[in-house]
User: What shape does this take?
Amino acid sequence: MKIFKDRILSLLIIFLSIINQSSFAQEKLRISAIPDQFPEKLNRLYIKLADELSNRLEIDVVYKPVINYQASVSAFRTGDLDMVWFGGLTGVQARLQRPGSIVIAQRDIDAEFHSVFIANKSSEIEPIDNINELNRLKGKRFTFGSESSTSGRLMPQYFLEQANVLISDFKGARAGFSGSHDTTIALVASGSYEAGVLNEEVWKDNLKSGNIDTSNVYVIWRTPAYANYHWLAQPNLDERFGKNFTSKLQKTILSLNKNKPKQKEILELFGADKFVKAYDYQYKDIETIGRKLGKIR
Assistant: This one.
């Protein structure tokens, strides 16, 4: 009788294990990113990344685009997105709204990131040697990127205020908000705005691709360094996908290798050689500045 009971118990354990594994297999890991560049590039990048993660993690990983920066924060807060590529500011906002969220990784270029201020040739704005010379932008038509962008709005506005330049000092007592870094380049190049500011890596990528006529639009100032982009994951992934899943996910991202063709393409689209570990404390200054400028309450 005891042997029979033991066999029944063993079969029950195996059955429950199969059911448990099946439930994990049915779960989808939903990833997304702030829409900081043209959708065509974002779709190419994150669909490739989703495929790579699916193969290596042996689960279904899907990319879900969002319409704007705040939509990514809202969807993360409600649990509709599992892991998001956030900028510094949106990442802080998301962590504050979703306690226990885990900073997974950043690129090797994100610990010391920069923005660039650019100008149209017709503006006749001279290159800037020090932060105080940002006052040359007073009275100019000026555009930021997205209102919630770290590199396209938050940090540039912080540096402008260090030079006593307020949004009300621009022409018309207001600034534009292009919505993305690529669009900022296009607007300044067309002359719609005399000057603007964007993510330095997007500027470099457009230069490399031959999309910028530097005789018409050029960099006037590069900001000091600050911490920026990072992957942020939900706090409950281990419960949904199995023990130590979050650690496995992190290791998979950190192990992306430019010596492997598919992974190399992903890293190149990210503008990085590799991903490295990132930590909450690296974004404390972003939080402080965000509160000061009213972007975090």
